[in-house]
Amino acid sequence: MFTKTKAFSSFSVDDLEKARSFYGKTLGLKVSKVPEGLVLNIAGGTKVFLYLSTDYAPPDHTVLNFPVTDIDAAIAALAKKRVKMEHYDLPGMKTDSKGVFRGKTGPKAIAWFKDPAGHILSILQQR
């Protein structure tokens, strides 16, 4: 039924201008303003729709994952734009001083950061 439908993801934010600045200027994504909100245009034709919510609460899970070829270089580039990595100390998942988790399975390395609305985003380096 949906094999030929181009699906897209969406999530709410509490401030569209802060979201447009963060995703457009900080992360360098092409952001389009539409009457209903914003559209993030991600490589490969992926689109993510952001809309304003008056009763917004950030989720406690990752909403976007950005694959990178060199996680350390990506963290350095984000740090120059004042983006801070999250740090976790959970059973089976402890990040290092840079905020990177390097597990035995899954991605070679993954790090998390937040957008201005508190959404958790990740950069990950595949094996």
Give the topology:
Layout: E1 9-13, H1 16-26, E2 30-34, E3 37-42, E4 46-52, E5 62-67, H2 71-80, E6 89-90, E7 93-94, E8 100-101, E9 109-114, E10 120-125
Parallel strand pairs: 1-4, 5-10
Antiparallel strand pairs: 2-3, 3-4, 6-7, 8-9, 9-10
Number of helices: 2
- The tally of domains stands at 2
Summarize the amount of helix as a percent range. Answer: 10-25%
Largest sheet: 4 strands, mixed
| Strand numbers in spatial order across the main sheet | 1-4-3-2
Proportion of residues in β-strands: 35-45%
Mean pLDDT: 95
Give a written overview of the molecule:
With about 130 residues, the protein is of the alpha+beta class. It has two domains: about 50 residues, 2,3-Dihydroxybiphenyl 1,2-Dioxygenase, domain 1 (Roll), CATH 3.10.180; about 70 residues, 2,3-Dihydroxybiphenyl 1,2-Dioxygenase, domain 1. About 15% of the residues lie in helices and about 35% in strands. It is built from two helices and ten strands. The strands form three sheets. A four-stranded mixed sheet has the order 1-4-3-2, with helices on one face. A four-stranded mixed sheet has the order 5-10-9-8. The chain has a two-stranded antiparallel ribbon with strand order 6-7.
